[in-house]
Amino acid sequence: MAQFRPFEMDNIPIKEQFMNWKDIVKPPYYKKSVDTYTRTRVILMNGIENASVLMSHAMERMTVDPEVKRQMAAMRRADSMQQQTVNWLNPANQTITDYYRDHTWL
User: Is this structure's pTM higher than 0.90?
Assistant: First the structure.
């Protein structure tokens, strides 16, 4: 497995991070066929993306430079698209007790 080295990776320009509707909307995983770790990863990534959007809103309120505000607005839009994609990976009919009902050993 390749190692994650964020400081050695090339960045992606903001203009290339915007997604169209087809890229944002992905089919949700099927809750009876994925393992628990996949569900957990989706939930955790959704929380991380949500915290990122909220933090950038807070940072934007603390600056007065209009150019910085403009650049942060573009970043927030790209982050929002990414957060929406991750959020929609959760199936709409999933509940917290689904995992426990599907296993006979409990």
Answer: no
